[in-house]
């Protein structure tokens, strides 16, 4: 290395070390030495180092400033590029109830009922009464369907898929319920109203507790007051015993038409139970036939 290059390099290094000391780094150690220049190459017009060097500040005492991080190698950068990054799944927003049929501009009664249900849905979304349910829910699940439906289906509580989408009965149980309504009863699902005893998913899909059902009861009663169904189909024992206010088995409630505030109530198995026990579908079909006779509906041809 010629004298000019050595002098210039020493000058730049001394200036850089002075800058580091002014910044609070007092002691420095180098990971590598400056590589010697290629003597075969011609000297540049300006005095510069022939190769760059990697370095980091290394603390030598407790009073030394925090060490500068080492530069990552090409292998480390490649490894980070291949490592998948975990992304947070965005939480679904609280949704207003899905109401069908579409609102008619010339139907003030329907418009009023839609507004009333949306108001109740907003109150449900703000509810904080059940600490465990609130802590574990993605969103509340109000209900969906026709605000003037003759028939209301009542379940026990939202499941995992319902919790994500904000609508009742949209998973495997929902598909079976749709088949029960449309293929079994011969009416569109959009012509009924569907909701649950509780409007938040119980953790692990457990049954809602009595306290949780009681806390959510005003929302059920308010929904009932707006829709004014003439018929109710309770899906499972949780729905049946909570609506009717009784403590008895589902077997003793099936096959009988009950009364709730002037509405005729028929009880049957929950679709989730039917998925686990397909042999019970024939009994559920008998329950639907009882409901259809009460509603004056003909049994669809198979």
Write the layout of secondary structure elements.
Blueprint: H1 3-22, H2 74-82, E1 98-99, H3 108-126, H4 131-136, E2 143-145, E3 151-155, H5 160-165, H6 172-184, E4 193-196, H7 210-227, E5 231-235, H8 237-244, H9 250-253, E6 258-260, E7 263-268, H10 271-276, H11 281-295
Parallel strand pairs: 1-2, 3-4, 3-5, 5-7
Antiparallel strand pairs: 2-4, 6-7
Q: What overall geometry do the principal axes of the alpha carbons give? A: elongated
CATH topology of the largest domain: Uracil-DNA Glycosylase, subunit E
- State the low-pLDDT regions, or none: 26-69, 80-97
Number of H- or I-type helical stretches: 11
Please state the CA-atom Rg, rounded to the nearest Å.
35 Å
Task: Explain what this protein looks like in three dimensions.
There is one protein chain. This protein is of the alpha/beta class and 302 residues long. It has 2 domains: 3-69, no CATH class; 98-295, Uracil-DNA Glycosylase, subunit E, CATH 3.40.470.10. The protein contains 11 helices and 7 strands. The chain has helices at 3-22, 74-82, 108-126, 131-136, 160-165, 172-184, 210-227, 237-244, 250-253, 271-276, 281-295, and strands at 98-99, 143-145, 151-155, 193-196, 231-235, 258-260, 263-268. The chain has a 7-stranded mixed β-sheet, with helices on both faces. The model is unreliable at 26-69 and 80-97 (pLDDT under 50).
